[in-house]
Amino acid sequence: MSGWWQVLPALAAAIAVTWAVLVATLYVVGRRHDDPVRLRDALRLMPDLVRLLRRLASDASLPRGVRLRVVLLGLYLAMPIDLVPDVIPVVGYVDDVLVVILVLRSVTRRAGPQALDRHWPGTREGLRALRSLAGLAPDAPT
Predict the structure, then answer these.
(1) Cα(44)–Cα(133) distance, rounded to whole angstroms?
(2) For residues 70 and 106, is the Cβ–Cβ distance under 8 A?
(3) What is the DSSP letter of 131?
(4) Residue 90: exposure state from Cβ atoms within 10 A (0-12, 13-18, ≥19)
(5) Whole-model pTM above 0.70?
(6) Of all helices (H) and strands (E), which one includes residue 56?
(7) Which tens digit of pLDDT belongs to each residue from 17-62?
């Protein structure tokens, strides 16, 4: 029992250091200006992205695993507490954007980019930005 109390401070310190490294990494990623789609542009997509997620989650033609990922993403975005609090400037939203990007890339690998194209409710420019964030060619094939 006495061994646990010696390990606990080291474990807490390791978690704190890991969290600090994550926040620093997100800050650097959020400040990069050489990306084709900047963080500010990605945040402007949020209203259309929420509608896209709702449409993807309710599309019975998509695999169940894809719909589950989308629902879990929606729950993550709706939670008031997340990996990095949104009250921290820049970094607070970068973690949300990164999670969205990871899920969108997963969705497009499993369901295909046509699922994003078919359900996107926003503008053509917004779809281009979304496709870029998802690691796809910016323009959908015609």
Answers:
(1) 13
(2) no
(3) H
(4) middle
(5) no
(6) helix 46-58
(7) 776 766 666 666 555 545 555 556 666 777 888 899 899 999 999 9
